[in-house]
Amino acid sequence: MATCYDKGTFEIVDLPPGITELPSMFQYKLKLGPNSEFVKCKARLCARGDLQYEHEFGETFAPTSRFSIIRLLIALATQSGMMLFQFDIRGAFLCADVDTDIYLKLPPGYQPPPGKTAKLRKSLYGLKQAPMAWHALIEAWMLKYGFKPIGQDRVTFLLNRGKSTILLSLYVDDGICATNDVKLYKQFLKDLSVEFELSNQGQCEWYLGVRIEQDLANKRTKLTQTQYIKDVLERFGMTGATPISTPMEPNTHLTVADCPPDFKRNKEFVREYQRIIGALMYLANLTRPDLAHSVNQCSKFMSNPGPSHMIAARRILKYLAGTTELGITYQAQPSTRANLLWGFTDADHAGDPDTRHSVTGYVLMIAGAAVSWSSTRQAVVALSSSEAEFYAASTCWCETTYLRTVLAQLGCAQ
């Protein structure tokens, strides 16, 4: 609440007749450090945005940085020998103004006198329009400062001042930056702190749950989620599991025939399966492309898994037990291959035995390691293996074209 008062998030006014107050609540969270150590307790005032009326908000979409773009930024920084920094904007959603009249019912202990209410002057966590309002505010500030938007998502920015460069990407209120001029970066932070309250300023070592180990002398950067894997194994009772060498048995095809009938569906079994796959998806999307295919196969049965599906999911956990330190390592390449985007694609014709759909897989690489990858079921039924391969190549080319566009805007045309 102190942050809300400091930022002037709301003011106490008379409650207009016929107005329904929007309920609010406190959200409590324990903040943990890189090694799952306790850092502090957090309490955040949130509006019940699920109870908002349509006239109280308009557009609600707000972009966030794609993981592939974050990895691309790190890869380019590794190749160029740029330093990686990070920052966090505290109370970001409380900085943006609201464009409609919203009256908030404060939680018990903070309620105003009878006949009074809290009228929002700033955006608040939980409001449907809060993410969009914040993005519009920070984007306007970046453009005014001189940053140039990169890509189509408008959350990655480039600042050039002579030979000095800052490449920045935002994931809501968490920023990661690559720069070749520390003095320029510090000036940027100083100017940013005039408008927003910053924290976690320093060299980037921990970002979105990923440990980043940068070796500037050898132009090498490693991304790992070792602590997250250990926490996942402990959560599902697999800490002492016997490691295995592959995440899935070769030629395994999970089918709906193994799903139990509705009257035998165990809700707790389903929830446990969903928790396991949800935890694995975060790994497969950030730093573990080796899990992409197996997690994709298991995720098709989230609503009604059977025993064989659970065995396959727990096999992935056993694989993780022996590969906790595995991650992505970017290494600067010779000048002939500097910033060169290259990749592989393949298709498994009729790989889904239930629908006869094929499976597309691809990986795109820069600086000697993957920046983008995917393993997904194709949307149409391919009539031949050649058609499946062309479809996979087309899917890969769409991602390649997007990354080539971003690279061209950064001066790394392919």
What does the secondary structure layout of this molecule look like, with pairings?
Layout: H1 2-6, E1 10-14, E2 22-32, E3 38-47, H2 67-80, E4 83-89, E5 103-105, E6 116-120, H3 130-145, E7 148-150, E8 156-161, E9 164-171, E10 174-179, H4 182-195, E11 198-203, E12 206-207, E13 210-215, E14 220-224, H5 226-235, H6 267-286, H7 292-299, H8 307-321, E15 328-331, E16 342-348, E17 359-366, E18 369-377, H9 385-409
Parallel strand pairs: 2-5
Antiparallel strand pairs: 1-6, 2-3, 4-10, 4-11, 5-6, 7-8, 8-9, 9-10, 12-13, 13-14, 14-15, 16-17, 17-18
Quick recap:
This protein has nine helices and 18 strands. By secondary structure, the chain is α+β, with helices and mostly antiparallel strands. β13 (210-215) and β14 (220-224) form a beta hairpin.
If you had to describe this structure to a student in words, what would you say it looks like?
With 414 residues, the chain is an alpha+beta fold. The protein contains 9 helices and 18 strands. The protein has helices at 2-6, 67-80, 130-145, 182-195, 226-235, 267-286, 292-299, 307-321, 385-409, and strands at residues 10-14, 22-32, 38-47, 83-89, 103-105, 116-120, 148-150, 156-161, 164-171, 174-179, 198-203, 206-207, 210-215, 220-224, 328-331, 342-348, 359-366, 369-377. Strands 7-8-9-10-4-11 form a 6-stranded antiparallel sheet, with helices on both faces. Helix 6 packs antiparallel against helix 7 and helix 6 (267-286) packs across helix 8. The longest helix has 25 residues, at 385-409. The chain is globular, with a radius of gyration of 24 Å. The N and C termini lie far apart (51 Å). The model has no long low-confidence stretch (mean pLDDT 93).
